[in-house]
Automatic annotation (TrEMBL), chain A:
Signal peptide: none
Protein name: Hydantoinase/oxoprolinase family protein
Domain Hydantoinase/oxoprolinase N-terminal span(s) in chain numbering: 6-180
Pfam families: Hydant_A_N, Hydantoinase_A
Domain of life: Bacteria
Domain Hydantoinase A/oxoprolinase: 203-496
TrEMBL record, chain B:
Lineage of origin: Bacteria, Pseudomonadati, Pseudomonadota, Alphaproteobacteria, Hyphomicrobiales
Ranges where the Hydantoinase B/oxoprolinase domain occurs: 2-511
Region (Disordered): 493-513
Coiled coil: none
InterPro entries reported for this sequence: Hydantoinase_B, Oxoprolinase-like
Biased composition (Gly residues): 503-513
Protein name in UniProt: Hydantoinase B/oxoprolinase family protein
């Protein structure tokens, strides 16, 4: 019997579903509006559309899920009443936070309220010092009194964060044992389990966030699993972690804070999977939607991982203004550049775009729904990038005249006509994204010219070629089914699980035997879950070490040779560290001692080895398109240029820019000096052939 | 230059300098850089005019550092510089006003021409001398003075200078590690600028520099012109020395689109290390003006040049050699609040009540169990002043931007552990909007007897005033084993001693109803 996998991605606006035929690679997709009051409803509607017609419910052998619900619960403060227990003397840590402004000039700046209010933060006498010495025993009587008081005030979930527990967790563990006796149903999150890292504020913030969303996560996941079972889908259910790993229901419910970035992670994994199918190892994954653009790097077919994250920023896109969350996530940057981003002229007489967005309500001026501010989408229309008759599949009646008159108004204040202003907005939003990507690539010590640019999201393909050109990238890829990239990524991504163990020793004092014991423990833990996910296959293991010069505050993660640690392999660690260090910081410090802070390992097993195919409807294939002019800044000509229907393009042919390619969920805009082809899978490949005015010199 | 090209290049320059600052943070060694962010990174044009600064920069250094670059240029004119050179100094007057701040600058050449400087200042974890307190009477007591020298010449490090530096500090590996982080950051910035020049086919940065500065100058001029003409004065008393307060006076004059500040009437310089060098006075003045009048535009030289600052020579805000200045922040951090107090008369909605600053700091010199010297410094903040539309934030660095060190990092790196760190509820001044609260931090000393401890602490007698009828915040306090101690002197610790710092609250805004 043919078997299938079901991917479900719940985003802020849409719930995307993909069913993948595991034998043939054929996919079928559905897009539903997210039903915020009860997210499961949107999922069921989507499942009803594709499961049944396309495959039988009992043919689904695996369900993989990602969601932004928990992130949104933090942003909208819709979590439960969570209580917090700290070491005596530290109940204000969340409120004192870092004592530092994220904007030095803004005297009116505001900081986020702690997730746990004053009256639900309580202290317990206990103290273990940095060296492990028990300075004060855990006061169990006082613990009980404080927990009683919290429960009496309605606490639904409890977080515990004791000083130095990242290294010495015995008091946290003992507290949980006792609380389980007193209140067996009260969920308890321990800081050393959620985030075993030095720094009490960040660790406390992380464990508080975990408790804050934990009951929601538990109910929601249970509800979804039951709803799917009622539809006859009894397959194992997995959730995507922020770092791209997969996990089972049990771990997802215990550490929901690790799921915060699961949706965006799935999108980047989708890029990595397509890269693997296409033989492209280094990608800049670029996703541009209505409000934001997200940018991530994929190297050697693996997304980069970051070890901290900030949730619910007080000021959008201002780093430092949110709640710090110590989790490993696929490293991506998010900037306020989307189709709805609003253009304005600032006090210096400069044209600026975003981060304010018109969103979907009122939306761009051209939607005719009351939007008064010129947006990126308006400018895309004015320039001819988008086809007013076929925007969002023809579902919105576009008022281009209104967009133009707003552009005239804005342009006149800086001496530009409507066309000039529109091109300015287009070019600036592209530069904003290019600048963000450039910083991101540079931060990894990489050369942007070695990356292909992988574009998804509704607005991504409209701007991708121009952004890539600014960056100096040589190739742009627009995959098939770019509109549901994240949901597809859930199914294509290998099952991966990461584990970490603290070491905290000088490199020259490492004992291989001791290290191998630690490696064995984390590897068997990771491998066992992966083996449950992909039955019958032995996962591949990769090993890493976090290293730093002694007394530095940040680690560099270094890939280690496969297999157990020996004196011989240990001898290569310094070189591996220094070569990575040189890459990032330009020079090494000869003679400084090196410290190994953690070891890491992951187990990984491919879930799908084939290639995917998208079936396109006959209606879409026979839809006619008309050539039209495109702004000279992009096309180099005032004549009409070629417009193609993507579904009629086949491999073996090439087309030269300038041209515009229309498809159901997006439009690909290709300027001059570019060559376009379709590969055998149906992905569009744009090669930037010449050096264009603003491209990097060789 | 057309507005779109300008915007593109400007954004790119900021991203280059931000990238440099991120690398600096990640490769630094001391808690003062990585936890407290006591450093800044900027790019100037070829003549030392600031072009862009890292978003995470300190109000003080972004004002002083361009002046330092210009001072370097006086000592080492352009024709004496070559690619791979790195200049260094910690001069009190041409640097930041005190010796622990080490400034470095790298000239950036493109196609054989000097086009820019990448520069950085960072607070070193130690600079030798007496552990920092207001006690030193002359600069010679305050540690190593590094003249304007080339740390690198054509990419080669000066080993003599390096040896001198290592020999004179308590923690040579940390000091050298942070300095390496600074210099490699400058190299990363150079790479970024080179690729920008190539990509946009630029020959130099003259036009960009001119555009950035004139736009900033014009924006500031417009903002100044919107403020009614007149002279607005304020006066503030600081705790000063143990026996005598210090008076600060300012007159802010707005005339058309120009602003001038005059500190005439402020106290004379003193034989204690709280003298605030002119460079720091200027920097704090420019910061206050920008906060009040043009907070939204990326900072550059254009926001400094139009502001004229007069401070009488030999006064506490413009001392002369050989005055000491290690604790100059104890005067300098009053300046923005003083200026705001003056401006409150005319633009009350754009200023803050005084904050519970200057910043508080603990300095500790001790020996570890093997008898090796250790130096630690940890910062803590009081409450921020209230504004016209919101309460002051509790425990928030202002006007500085120095983060507190995590208690667990203190426990790990110093012979101290934090017993408690809590908000002193109600310590902010009352008002329509309340001042932010200060905090109490208690430490227990666990090292060997005989360690020296000293502090930066102010507003233990003079509270942060409110404005527009708001009440002052609580004063701060400093205790060892429960007894108030002289905040301006060094103290010797024995094992088990308990030190408590209580930072002041911020002032309130408007009458409480």
């Amino acid at each position: 019997m043919t078997s299938y996998a079901l991917g479900i991605d719940i985003g802020g606006t849409f719930t995307d579903l993909v069913v993948l035929n595991l034998d043939t690679g054929t996919i079928n997709t559905a897009k539903e509006l997210t039903t915020h009051d009860d997210p499961t409803r949107g999922v069921i509607e989507g499942v009803n559309k594709i499961v049944g017609d396309f495959c039988a419910a009992d043919q689904v052998e695996r369900v993989v899920h990602a969601t932004t619900l928990f992130t949104n619960a933090l942003i909208e403060r819709r979590g439960v009443k969570a209580g917090l227990l700290t070491t005596h003397g530290f109940r204000d840590t969340l409120e004192i936070s870092r004592e530092r402004k994220y904007d030095i000039y803004d005297i009116l700046l505001s900081v986020p309220d702690p997730l746990v209010p004053d009256d639900l933060r309580r202290e317990v006498p206990e103290r273990i010092l940095n060296d492990g010495q028990v300075y004060s025993e855990l006061d169990e009587t006082e613990l009980q009194a404080q927990v009683d008081a919290l429960v009496a005030s309605g606490t639904e979930a409890l977080a515990i964060c004791f000083q130095n527990a990242f290294a010495h967790p015995s008091h946290e563990i003992r507290a949980r044992e006792l609380i389980a006796q007193w209140y067996p149903d009260l969920p308890v999150s321990l800081s050393h389990e959620v985030s075993p890292q030095l720094g009490e504020y960040e660790r406390m913030s992380t464990v508080a966030a975990n408790a804050y969303v934990q009951p929601l996560a538990k109910n929601y996941i249970n509800g979804l699993v039951v709803a799917l079972e009622e539809l006859g889908i009894m397959a194992p259910f997995f959730m995507m972690l922020s770092n791209g790993g997969l996990t089972d229901v049990e771990e997802a419910q215990k550490f929901p804070v690790r799921l915060l970035e699961s949706g965006p992670a799935a999108g980047v994994l989708s890029a990595a999977s397509f890269g693997r199918m296409m033989g492209e190892e280094a990608l800049i994954a670029f996703d541009m939607g209505g409000t934001t653009a997200k940018i991530a790097l994929v190297q050697d077919n693996e997304p980069d991982i970051a070890y901290s994250f900030e949730a619910a920023p007080e000021k959008r896109f201002a780093p430092g203004s949110g709640l710090p969350i110590n989790i490993s996530t696929i490293e991506l940057i998010e900037i306020g550049a989307g189709g709805g981003s609003i253009a304005h002229v600032n006090d210096l007489g400069l044209l600026k775009v975003g981060p304010r967005s018109a969103g979907s309500k009122p939306g761009p001026v051209c939607y005719g729904r009351g939007g008064q501010d010129l947006t990126v989408t308006d400018c895309d229309m004015i320039m001819g990038c988008l086809n007013p008759e076929y925007f969002a599949g023809g579902s919105i009646d576009i008022k281009i005249g209104e967009a133009k008159s707003v552009a005239v108004g804005l342009g006149s204040s800086i001496g530009l006509d409507a066309d000039g202003a529109a091109f300015g907005v287009y070019d600036i939003v592209c530069e904003n994204m290019a600048a963000a990507a450039r910083v991101h690539v540079a931060r990894h010590g990489q050369d942007v010219r070695n990356f292909s640019f992988f574009a998804t999201g509704g607005a991504g393909p409209v701007h991708a070629v121009n952004v890539a050109r600014k960056l100096g990238a040589k190739r742009v890829i627009i995959p098939l089914a770019a509109g549901v990239a994240s949901a597809l990524g859930l199914l294509l991504a290998p099952a991966r699980l990461d584990r970490v163990a603290p070491v905290g020793q000088s490199l020259n004092r490492i004992d291989p035997a001791e290290l191998n014991t630690k490696f064995d423990a984390i590897i068997s833990s990771a491998a066992s879950i992966v083996e449950r996910t992909v039955a019958g296959k032995k996962p591949r293991i990769e090993r890493f070490a976090d290293m730093r010069y002694a007394r530095q505050g940040y680690d560099i993660t270094v890939r280690l040779p496969d297999g157990p640690v020996t004196e011989d392999t240990l001898a290569t660690w310094r070189d591996r560290f220094e070569s990575e260090y040189r890459k990032q910081f330009s020079s090494v410090l000869a003679g400084q001692a090196i410290e190994v802070t953690n070891i890491r390992a992951f187990a990984i097993s491919p879930t799908f080895d084939g290639t995917v195919k998208l079936e396109v409807s006959d209606d879409e294939q026979s839809r006619e398109v008309r050539d039209r002019p495109l702004h000279t800044g992009l096309s180099g000509t005032s004549d009409v240029i070629t417009v193609l229907n993507r579904s009629t393009m086949t491999d073996g042919q090439t087309w030269a820019g300038p041209l515009v390619i229309e498809e159901q969920d997006s439009t690909v805009v290709v300027g001059q000096a570019a060559e376009v082809r379709v590969d055998t899978l149906g992905n569009l490949i744009v090669d930037l052939t010449h050096e264009a005015p603003a491209a990097l010199e060789g | 230059m057309d507005p779109i090209t300008l915007e593109t290049l400007w954004t790119r320059m900021i991203s280059i300098v931000d990238e440099g600052a991120a690398a600096m943070l990640r490769s630094s060694f001391s808690t003062v850089v990585r936890d407290s962010y006591d450093f800044s990174v900027i790019i100037t044009d070829r003549t030392g005019n600031s072009l862009v600064q890292a978003t995470d920069s300190l109000p003080s250094f972004i004002g002083t550092l361009p002046r330092t670059v210009r001072a370097f240029l006086k000592e080492y004119p352009a024709n004496t510089l070559k690619p791979g050179d790195v200049l260094i100094t910690n001069d009190m007057y041409d640097g930041t006003g005190h010796l622990p701040d080490i400034s470095v600058a790298r000239p950036i050449f493109y196609k054989g021409e000097l086009i820019a400087f990448a520069a950085s200042t960072a607070h070193a974890p130690d600079i030798g001398g007496k552990i920092r307190s207001p006690e030193p009477r002359e600069i010679f007591e305050e540690g190593l003075q590094i003249p304007m020298l080339k740390l690198f010449s054509g990419g080669q490090m000066d080993q003599t200078l390096r040896a001198f530096l290592r020999k004179n500090v308590r923690v040579p590996d940390l000091v050298e590690g942070d300095l390496a982080a600074q210099t490699s950051t400058l190299e990363l910035i150079e790479r970024g600028i080179h690729s920008l020049m190539a990509q946009y086919h630029l020959q130099d940065l003259k036009e960009l520099s001119h555009e950035i500065r004139t736009r900033a100058e014009n924006a500031l001029a417009t903002a100044i012109a919107a403020v009614p003409d007149g002279s607005y004065s304020a006066e503030m008393e600081t705790d000063g020395l143990t026996d005598s307060p210090i008076t600060l006076r300012v007159k802010v004059t707005i005339k058309g689109n120009e602003v001038s500040l005059d500190f005439a009437g402020s106290s004379q310089q003193v034989p204690k290390a709280i003298n605030c060098a002119y460079c720091y006075t200027l920097s704090m003045s420019a910061y206050a003006i920008k906060c009040a009048l043009a907070p939204d535009i990326p900072n550059n030289e254009g926001f400094v040049t139009p502001i004229s600052v007069e401070a009488p020579e030999r006064s506490i805000v413009n001392p002369v050699f050989p005055a000491s200045g290690g604790s100059r922040v104890l005067i300098g951090h009053y300046i923005p609040s003083l200026i705001f107090q003056a401006l409150a008369e005319v633009i009350p909605e754009r200023v803050l009540a005084a904050s519970g600053s200057p910043i508080w700091c603990l300095n500790l010199a001790s020996l570890d169990s093997q008898g090796r010297p250790q130096a630690n410094l940890f910062f803590f903040n009081g409450g921020m002043g209230a504004a016209s539309s919101r309460d002051g934030i509790h425990c928030m660095s202002w006007p500085g931007n120095i983060s507190a060190t995590p208690s667990e990092a203190i426990d790990q790196t110093a012979p101290l552990h934090v017993v408690h760190k809590k908000i002193i509820r109600g310590s902010g001044g009352a008002g329509r909007y309340r001042g932010g609260d200060g905090q109490s931090i208690m430490f227990e000393y666990s090292g060997n007897d005989g360690a020296a401890i000293s502090f930066l602490s102010e507003r233990t007698t003079q509270p942060a005033p409110g404005i527009q009828g708001g009440l002052p915040g609580n004063v701060g306090y400093l205790r060892i084993n429960g007894k108030d101690v002289d905040p301006k002197s060094q103290h010797i610790l024995k094992q088990g001693d308990r030190i408590e710092m209580g930072t002041p609250g911020g002032g309130g805004y408007g009458h409480a109803s």
